[in-house]
Amino acid sequence: DIQMTQSPSSLSASVGDRVTITCRASQSISSYLNWYQQKPGKAPNLLIYAASSLQSGVPSRFSGSGSGTDFTLTISSLQPEDFATYYCQQSYNTPQTFGQGTKVEIK
Amino acid sequence: QVQLQESGPGLVKPSETLSLTCTVSGGSMSSYYWSWIRQPAGKGLEWIGRIYTSGSTNYNPSLKSRVTMSVDTSQNQFSLNLNSVTAADTAVYYCARDPGSSGWYYFDYWGQGTLFTVSS
């Protein structure tokens, strides 16, 4: 299985901050990397697919980059509704695997 | 708007079989992959497996010996059976759609999730 490692596991930030979350794959996954946001008691919501493609309806302050083994999710200006847990997921092969999550909390 | 809804018993005894169904509305099931994903309380996400509308399946090797998935496009439903359950199978179970567009795979629609508990 491909292991996905996110860092940090949690972070504290203020509204308006630029936030960066990284995800590293245990082997090259080309651009088969997706990002999801999950709020408590809710299903995950797709933000970014294919490493850098913004899902329809997702605000443009979210962006993704990277290829191979190293990827980044950036929130350019953190908004109150962005406090949540973020997961990366590889779809290069099966079993598809997720990172352990990064919890973004209010500072 | 595509919607997915999980249904099934919320509680089963150890060694019994979990059976969940996901009903798809607002769109066709054809030419998509349909996945099951679970999340134990306070933990991360685990992909259980997927089924294509043709009936072909891929299962997580960690669960493969206990998992069966099926699809009924006439009813707009797909199902998960997980046998010989233990407390470790207690989790919120999600169904999700994967469009597999142009070779890219991701989960663009999710059900709300259903809590499944294993307890005697």
Structure characterization notes:
- The complex is a heterodimer of chains A (107) and B (120).
- In chain A, the strands form two sheets. In chain A, strands 2, 4, 5, 6, 9, 10 and 11 form a seven-stranded mixed sheet that branches. In chain A, strands 1-3-8-7 form a four-stranded antiparallel sheet, with no helix packed on it.
- In chain A, strand 9 and strand 10 (97-98) form a beta hairpin.
- Chain A contains no helices and eleven strands.
- With 107 residues, chain A is an all-beta fold.
- The model of chain A has no long low-confidence stretch (mean pLDDT 97).
- Chain B is an all-beta fold.
- Chain B is 0% helix and 49% strand.
- Chain B is built from no helices and eleven strands.
- Chain B has strands at residues 3-7, 11-12, 18-25, 33-39, 46-52, 57-59, 67-72, 77-82, 91-98, 109-110, 114-118.
- In chain B, the strands form two sheets. In chain B, strands 2, 4, 5, 6, 9, 10 and 11 form a seven-stranded mixed sheet that branches. Chain B has a four-stranded antiparallel sheet with strand order 1-3-8-7, with no helix packed on it.
- The model of chain B has no long low-confidence stretch (mean pLDDT 96).
Tally of alpha and pi helices of chain B: 0
Oligomerization? heterodimer
Q: Roughly what is the average pLDDT of chain A, rounded to an integer? A: 97
Query: Count the helices of chain A. How many?
Result: 0
Tally of extended strands of chain B?
Answer: 11
Number-wise, the strands of chain A total 11
The major beta sheet of chain A can be summarized as: 7 strands, mixed
Distance between the termini of chain A: 36 Å
Structural class of chain A: mainly beta
Inertia-based shape of chain B:
globular
Please give the share of residues in helix of chain B.
under 10%
Poorly predicted runs of chain A: none
Mean pLDDT of chain B: 96
